[in-house]
Amino acid sequence: MNAMLRETESTTAPLVASGLVHCYEGSNALNGIDLVLQPGSVLGLIGRNGAGKSTLIRAMLGLLQPLAGSAYVFGEPALKLGDATKARIAYVPQQPEALSWLTAQQMLDFVGRFYPRWDSSFAKHTLERWQIQPNRALAKLSPGERQRVELIRALAAQPELLVLDEPAAALDPVARRELLREIALRAGESGTTVLFSTHIVSDLERVASDVAFLHQGKLLMRCTVDETKERYARLWLPPQASFAAPAQALSRRRHDDGSLSLVVARDAHDQWPEAAGLPSARLDALGLEDLFVEIAE
Amino acid sequence: MDASLLSIQPAASEPIYRQIVEQLRRLIAGGQLTPGESLPSVRDVAGFHAINPMTVSRAYGIAESEGLLERQRGKGMVVSTTRQATQTESHRLALLEPQLQALARHANELELPAERILRRLTKLLGEER
C-alpha cells in the first residue's frame, strides 16, 4: 500500500524527495529527508543558516547527487531530467553565476527562447521597475541586482514549478512585496507550485500554504501555515505544577526558577494536553517565528 | 468595499483567514458594510495584501457559511441581505467573548474580586454612552 502510494505521488507531484541523505566533509547536511509538494501549493522552507536548505533544494532538483535517497520532478528522476520537464521549471539560486558575460537584456532574450510560455513584456517592465540597467554585463552587477535579474527570468518563464533560494535577500521591501504578490497570485490562479527558502518568516506567513522547518539536516515539522498557528502553543507551568507536564512535547525548557516551558500540540480530538487546564498553567498562542525559535533551539 | 479596509498581520498568532472573517464580522456588525454591498474579489484582496488567494477564498467561504456573506450571480460576494446574522444582541455579545475571557483571566491572575471589576466596568460603560 505504502509503495503504491509512493508510486502515484512520484508520478503526479511536482517535487518528491525520498530519503535524501548528503554530507559535506563528514558533517551531515541532509539526514534522510522525505518531502512531497502538491500541485498549486506554496511551500516555505525555514531554517537557520547552514541548516541544509540550499543543499535540499539542489538535491531535489537534481543539481547535486545525494549520497542516498532519490528525488523526482514531475515524476522524472531528478538526476535525469529531459528538456521538456526542464522547460516547466524555473530555479533561482542564492548566488547566480551563469551567463555572466551577457547583459541582462541579452540573457533574458537568449533564455526566453527555451521557454514555451515566455512573457517578454513582463521581463521588460520588471527590469525597469526593479531598476536594472539592461545593457550592463551581468558580471558587473551587484549580487543583489544579479539575483533580481534571475528572479525576473524565473517569473517571465511562467513555469509550472518555481523554486527560489532565499529570494528576499536581494530585494528592498517594495520589490519584495511585489515578488510575494507574484508568487501568491500565480499559485492561486495559474496553479503554479512554489518552493522557496527564507529566514524572513513574515514573508512565508503571507504567501505560503505550507511550511517545512529544516534543522540540522532534518525536517522538524511539515504542515500548513494555518495549522502551525492553530495546533501548537506554548504551555508554561510554574515549579509546583511542572510534575504534570505532558510526556509528549516538541520542546521542553526548564527555567532557572524551576518553571517549565513546553511547545505542545492538540491531540487527535483537538484537545490540548491535560496540564493546560490547571489553574496555574498558562497557554500562549505562538506565531510561526516563535514556534520555530522554540523548537529549533 | 475596498481591499484596503482589511488589515492583515501575517506575524500574528491568529491565522490570516481568521483575521479576515473576524474583521468582516465586525465591519458588518458595526454597519460599515451594509447588506448587499459588494466585496472585493479574492484576487483583489490577495493582490493588495500579497497573500495567498486560497487564504482569502477560505475566509470568504467561512463567512458565507456563517451567513455573513452570500454569493450573488454576476456580482460575486456581497454582504448578506437575507439574514442579519450579526445584528441580534446575542450575536453582538458573542463578538466580545474573546475579550471578556481575557479580562476574566487577567482578573483571576491579579486575584481581584468580581464586584470591584464589575463596578469599574459599569462605570466605564456608562461613560461611553
Which labels suit this protein?
heterodimer; A: 297 residues; alpha/beta; Rossmann fold; 6-stranded mixed β-sheet; 10 helices; elongated; B: 129 residues; mainly alpha; 2 domains; 55% helix; WH-like_DNA-bd_sf (chain B); WH_DNA-bd_sf (chain B); GntR family transcriptional regulator (chain B); transcription (chain B)
Secondary structure topology:
The complex is a heterodimer of chains A (297) and B (129).
Chain A: H1 2-12, E1 15-24, E2 27-37, E3 42-46, H2 53-60, E4 68-73, E5 76-77, H3 83-86, E6 89-92, H4 104-112, H5 120-129, H6 143-156, E7 161-165, H7 173-190, E8 193-198, H8 201-207, E9 210-215, E10 218-224, H9 225-231, E11 232-237, E12 251-254, E13 260-265, E14 282-285, H10 288-295
Parallel strand pairs in A: 3-8, 3-9, 6-7, 7-8
Antiparallel strand pairs in A: 1-2, 1-4, 4-5, 9-10, 11-13, 11-14, 12-13
Chain B: H1 16-29, H2 42-49, H3 53-65, E1 69-72, E2 76-79, H4 89-109, H5 114-128
Antiparallel strand pairs in B: 1-2
Description of the molecule:
The complex is a heterodimer of chains A (297) and B (129). Chain A has 3 domains: 2-88 and 160-216, P-loop containing nucleotide triphosphate hydrolases (Rossmann fold, 3-Layer(aba) Sandwich); 96-158, no CATH class; 227-295, no CATH class. By secondary structure, chain A is of the alpha/beta class. Chain A is elongated. Chain A is built from 10 helices and 14 strands. In chain A, β1 and β2 (27-37) form a beta hairpin. Chain B has 2 domains: 3-79, Winged helix-like DNA-binding domain superfamily/Winged helix DNA-binding domain (Arc Repressor Mutant, subunit A), CATH 1.10.10.10; 89-128, no CATH class. Chain B contains 5 helices and 2 strands. The mean pLDDT of chain B is 87. Classes of the chains: A alpha/beta (297), B mainly alpha (129). At the A-B interface, α7, α8, α9 and α10 of A face α2 and α3 of B.
